[in-house]
Automatic annotation (TrEMBL):
Record's keyword terms, sorted: Hydrolase, Multifunctional enzyme, NADP, One-carbon metabolism, Oxidoreductase, Photorespiration
Catalytic activity: (6R)-5,10-methenyltetrahydrofolate + H2O = (6R)-10-formyltetrahydrofolate + H(+); (6R)-5,10-methylene-5,6,7,8-tetrahydrofolate + NADP(+) = (6R)-5,10-methenyltetrahydrofolate + NADPH
Quaternary structure and interacting proteins, as annotated: Homodimer.
Species of provenance: Rhynchospora tenuis
MF annotations from Gene Ontology: methenyltetrahydrofolate cyclohydrolase activity; methylenetetrahydrofolate dehydrogenase (NADP+) activity
UniProt-listed NCBIfam families: PRK14186.1
Protein name as catalogued: Methenyltetrahydrofolate cyclohydrolase
UniProt family annotation: Belongs to the tetrahydrofolate dehydrogenase/cyclohydrolase family.
Amino acid sequence: MASTLLSPDCSTSATTARHLIPLTRKLLCPTTRLVSFERCLSSPWTPSLCLSSSVSKYRTAVSAADPSSMTTTDTTANIIDGKLISKQIKDEVAAEVVRLREATGVVPGLAVILVGSRKDSQTYVRNKKKACEAVGIKSFDANLPEDCTEDEVLRHIEEFNKNPEVHGILVQLPLPMHMNEERILTGVSIEKDVDGFHPLNIGRLAMQGRDPLFVPCTPKGCIELLHRYNIDIKEKRAVVIGRSNIVGMPAALLLQKANATVTMVHSKTMSPGEIIRQADIVISAAGVANLVRGNWLKPGAVVIDVGINPVDDANSPRGYRLVGDVCYEEASKVASYITPVPGGVGPMTIAMLLSNTLLSAKRIHNFK
Ligand code: NAP
């Protein structure tokens, strides 16, 4: 999946992109923002990103306090700060957890089932537990040995399905090779499927006029980043790179639900650059370092990089560092907005899991 090669002219240095204070739903007050057409100037506190066909022609930094003060024209992408947004979301979740508890006595609960002893999975589970504690969500866990049976896993799922203190159940993937992932994920009650991987939730996501009870966390986090930066999706051309069940496919469905025109690119796609160059919004989830080069992007495109790929780095104490699928140095000179890796989509996944768990507790207890 991940490449260990990184071409020398492509780095994850964040120096070519600039930070833009994100737009929260409650407070819309950026210090600097991007406008491309005059109509964006009309509303200083709710700027909308009007994607342009030429960055150099349209991109202009404007002081939010004084929209008439056009200053510079440049070709540096704004950074979409996933760390900051995820912190905002966690704060919002924590406040809602308190409101729910004070009004009803209910404390949201998340159960995590871990099978086996993969170090990366153990780390993810530990981080999820810590994140729950930080926002006041109660954690439950079941750690099962690698050689346990599917029925044992299903028995634990069933207990959590019945436990009224548990509002969300997550089975840490990947499962050991001998297990049927579909059978296990289908065992999770659809009402507690906070990962959104139950076939019924995915099916509802795919169908017109239906809504899933939960949306998978990573793609939901990608869309949330677009919303929080007030980036329009409707009527835009979007390309999703990757078609996995957990990221690419649901990301494409979400973009389509938001009225983008969506194309999916995968490992068998011919001339991917030509297709990606048409896109106003690119979400990349291929797991291939440096796959997306600057000249694959339309000037002014918004780039959401989901990929997390280790690449050799002799200067790092660990001997490697993490990069995305997108050649950041090149892309940040072409794109209007870009997520860094790390610090972009990554932190959003756990924030969305907490948000889904809260949503579940509120729904089960009919709390608005
Ligand atoms: P996956 O299951 O391996 O799927 C990768 C997808 O990318 C497949 O659909 C594959 O196409 C496609 N692909 C592979 N090489 C390609 C290429 N050269 N050109 C175009 N498409 C290509 O991976 P995943 O689980 O979706 O994860 C993708 C990346 O996101 C990984 O780096 C992973 O670590 C990262 N990730 C991050 C988060 C987060 O929280 N930030 C969460 C989940 C995953 P085929 O279908 O044709 O094989």
